[in-house]
Specification:
The complex is a heterodimer.
Chain A lengths: L2 E6 L13 H4 L2 H4 L2 E5 L8 H11 L6 E4 L10 H10 L2 E3 L3 E7 L2 E8 L5 E2 L2 E2 L6 H23 L4 E6 L22 H8 L5 E4 L8 E3 L5 E4 L2 H4 L4 E5 L11 E3 L8
Parallel strand pairs in A: 1-2, 2-3, 3-4, 6-9, 9-10, 10-12
Antiparallel strand pairs in A: 1-13, 5-6, 7-8, 11-12
Chain B lengths: L14 H13 L9 E5 L2 E8 L2 H14 L5 E7 L7 E5 L1
Parallel strand pairs in B: 2-3
Antiparallel strand pairs in B: 1-2
The chains are: A alpha/beta, B alpha+beta.
Chain lengths: 258, 92
């Protein structure tokens, strides 16, 4: 049993980008069972930009599941953005999850946008001014929602999808001073509380692809400027040898054990 | 958007200029880029990062030149490639 997951984040679509991803996306059904988008689909979160996303990422022949990112909130049109995306068949997660049948295996995906706050020993605390308390409260509530969503899914393989990072590992390359604006440890804690197989996020354009949570869950930063290709593909499967972790295989042919 | 004061007469090595440009690129609705790094070099400022289209790169340079006409600015901004992947990563 193998589940093939394609993923990319931070595509920041507007009219000037429509069509750039499409040639690579047309191959999607040959390479993946599902496409996960890690937020920042648009530049400013307008309805018009959401329509660009719908044109580019709609009708791919595989399910498309997304979370929103901070850019998608910029113009306060989130409900309309979500409507447009869902009308194009794209599932938008925020504190909930979905289970997809992938060749007889059930893939569970739990998603939230997440928020900043920082990482163990270097994080914001729920103390002091109301603005600081409100900031930390958003991080905590988001992580709590992710935890509840992860635990609510009945599936064979569980994936966490966020925009903000759950670990500092995948931020390497970003200035350390801004880590607290790029993610928070509470998301990692939520991911580690469930039998999560893989955590995907975006947001950190100058970050690094690979990391792990303190609990050992693999984390991948799939921000488009990080992966430098239309999308990355991950094969998840229990048959794979632990020593084969992160072995790179060629794309295009389904392995014999699938 | 935050108003940017006229600091065209400042030197490129002034770190406030780097801060102003960084915020300009994020807060200007025609740019909205948070992924551009402004690096101060002896001969002026260098902009690093990757954007999604050639038009966006051109707009960044146009905006910076408009707000800071006296500054020597070099672009090292690329456009992110969108080719399909050639490899998969296996995750047991």
């Amino acid at each position: 049993m193998v589940i093939r997951i394609a993923a990319v984040g931070d595509v920041h679509l507007d009219e000037d980008v429509v069509g750039r991803f499409r040639p690579a996306l047309e191959e999607m059904p040959n390479h993946a069972d599902v496409l996960l988008l890690a937020g920042d689909l648009t530049r400013h979160g307008t309805e018009a930009e959401a329509r660009c996303v719908a044109r580019e990422f709609g009708g791919l022949g595989v399910p498309v599941v997304t979370v929103l990112g901070n850019h998608d909130y910029q113009c306060n049109e989130v409900p309309r953005v979500v409507e447009v995306l869902e009308a194009a068949g794209i599932t938008v997660l925020e504190g909930n999850g979905t289970v997809l049948d992938c060749g007889g295996s059930r893939l569970g995906i739990a998603g939230v946008k997440g928020f900043g706050g920082g990482f163990a020993g270097r994080c914001a605390a729920d103390f002091g001014e109301p603005e600081m308390k409100a900031f930390v409260q958003v991080s905590t509530e988001s992580a709590d929602a992710l935890k509840a969503a992860l635990h609510s899914l009945d599936c064979d393989l569980l994936v966490a999808l966020t925009h903000y990072s759950p670990v500092p590992d995948t931020l390497a390359g970003e200035p350390p001073e801004i880590y607290a604006f790029l993610g928070c440890y509470q998301l990692g804690q939520a991911i580690d509380s469930a039998p999560t197989t893989l955590a995907l996020h975006g947001h950190a354009h100058h970050g690094t692809e690979r990391g792990t949570t303190p609990g050992g869950v693999r984390v991948r930063n799939v921000a488009h400027p990080v992966i430098k290709q239309a999308y990355s593909v991950f094969h998840l499967g229990e048959h794979l040898e632990p020593g084969e972790v992160s072995r790179m295989g060629s794309l295009g042919t389904r392995p014999a054990w699938s | 958007m935050t108003e940017h004061q006229d600091i065209a007469t400042r030197r490129a090595t002034d770190e406030y200029v780097a801060a102003e440009i960084h915020r300009l690129l994020a807060e200007d609705p025609d740019v909205a880029e948070q992924g551009i790094t402004v690096v101060r070099r002896e001969l002026g400022l260098v902009l690093h990062g990757e954007v999604e289209s050639v038009q966006r790169r051109d707009e960044i340079l146009r905006r910076v030149a408009e707000h800071f006409p006296e500054l020597a600015v070099t672009s090292d901004i690329g456009v992110v490639r969108t080719h399909p992947p050639t490899e998969i990563e296996q995750l047991p």
